[in-house]
């Protein structure tokens, strides 16, 4: 039986993934910040015949992550999958954003991923495994009013591309999923956009029409079942039943000399 540690698993996408992997035969280590919510998920997994234990820890705290990972290792003896879903938002335009709002979002999303990965690796390197980080289209394309969140999610992409190369020799795959799903975190923004466009008598743009957390969970479960060792360093968008494969950024214009470059840039813009 395989073991999966899932951060941010007490609600939203993390919870759905925990439930799905519990049904798929994983022993699930459920991480969150609130004991009551964690216990509810653990009991739900057990009620369906799965195996689960709860671990209350703030992933932004390195010492708490160390204690959590060591406890999971002591309980289950191995780690086969690590999935980083923990996150929160503190949205504000850049000029109004406080240093603490910037720091807190990067600490959970980006630093939290590093703290967990660094500590999980020794328990996965001997036999291989899977790591999966939740990124966002905000990290791929940017999102107004979310400079902290966009930067954190973009940072996770660099982490995935780098670690895919570093960890291949250990048979550890690492990928990213950019989910579009209605959750506690996204609901306020989506409801705001619905109201905004309704007042204008406009249809809600497709970008804001999202699927469910369970859609993401089903994709993650199937991704983990794929045995292709080259299926690593990839970024997948999941919105309902629609799956999108995102490529790494590619150079679109390369010219020798700054003057020649901007001349070519001007010609390129004029052709648009």
UniProtKB/TrEMBL annotation:
Family matches, as SUPFAM superfamilies: NAD(P)-binding Rossmann-fold domains (SSF51735)
Pfam family, one: adh_short
SMART domains: PKS_KR
Superkingdom per UniProt: Bacteria
Domain (Ketoreductase) ranges: 2-180
Transmembrane segments: none
Record family assignment: Belongs to the short-chain dehydrogenases/reductases (SDR) family.
Matches recorded under PANTHER family: 3-OXOACYL-(ACYL-CARRIER-PROTEIN) REDUCTASE, 3-OXOACYL-[ACYL-CARRIER-PROTEIN] REDUCTASE FABG
Record's protein name: SDR family oxidoreductase
Protein's organism: Paenibacillus artemisiicola
